[in-house]
Amino acid sequence: MDSIIFDLDGTLWDSSETVLVAWNKILEEENKEITLEDLKGIMGLQMHEIGKRLFPELEEESRTQLLNKCDEVEKVMLEEKGGELYAQIEEVLERLSKKYKLFIVSNCQDGYIEAFYNYHRLEKYFHDFENPGRTGLSKGENIKLIIERNQLKAPVYVGDTLGDQKAAKVAGIPFVYASYGFGEVEEYDYVIDSLNDLSRIF
Questions:
Q1: How far is Cα 28 from Cα 5, in angstroms, rounded to an integer?
Q2: What is the pLDDT of residue 160?
Q3: Taking a C-beta distance cutoff of 8 angstroms, is the pair 20, 36 a contact?
Q4: More confident site: 46 or 92
Q5: Measured between alpha carbons, how far is 148 from 189 in angstroms, rounded to an integer?
Q6: pLDDT per residue as tens digits for the range 152-170
Q7: Which residues contact 6 (CB under 8 A, 6 or more apart)?
Q8: Helix or strand or coil: residue 48?
């Protein structure tokens, strides 16, 4: 193994509290509201899928406009408040980055990973990142893009949802299931109960 590619939400941090406040700030204008449970149920999905699940009553154009407003406020608030990092994240990333190249591939909009970097000052541990907000591609295809762009020979993908497991399969690489995250996955190559377990496995 020469590299580790991470999912973001439910794997490296939990931004749901900050995102909830940001989204409800916009949704209040539309006489709508979402709960933390709603939000955690759609973590890891691409924005068009999120829109269909949360606002099925809206026409696609109206849904897209609403999501774009939510996204803009979300990025501003994440830059200001950040999210909740999982335990020992910087210690683990520092240790792993000495042995492996580290990357992030997340199903988020453009600017979201940058907000994670900017608030928590963790960019120095990662070589590259990708998301559908920049490429329009699926998570599996974005993983492949990272592999090709950085000439990786033997990466693994760390994530917490079934979508992450499927993306790793599409990319043809081993999957490490972060069981402490948002999803439940039955098929995986490795399982971790905390980020610190990565140091034990790798």
A1: 37
A2: 96
A3: yes
A4: 92
A5: 22
A6: 999 999 999 999 999 999 9
A7: 12, 102, 103, 104, 105, 157, 158, 159
A8: helix
Tracing tokens 């042995």 back to the chain, one arrives at: 99
Tokens of 56: 């099925």
For 69, the token pair is 């407003």
Report the candidate in 4, 50, 2, 1 with the shortest Cα–Cα distance to residue 27: 50
- The arrangement of strands across the sheet holding 3-6 comes to 128-130, 101-105, 3-6, 155-159, 175-178, 190-192
Q: For position 43, what pLDDT does the model report?
A: 81
Report the largest interatomic distance among the alpha carbons of the chain, rounded to a whole angstrom: 50
pTM: 0.93
Q: Name the band, by pLDDT with cuts 50, 70 and 90, for residue 25.
A: very high
In angstroms, the CA 164 to CA 3 distance is 17
CA dist., res. 173 & res. 30, Å (int): 43
Beta bridge partners of 152: none
The encoded tokens of residue 47 equal 């924005």
Is residue 4 classed as helix, strand or coil in its secondary structure?
A: strand
CB 192 within 8 A of CB 173: no
Question: Strand pairing partners for 129?
Answer: 104
Q: Report the 10 Å Cβ neighbour count for 103.
A: 22
Helix (H, G, I), strand (E, B) or coil at 60: helix
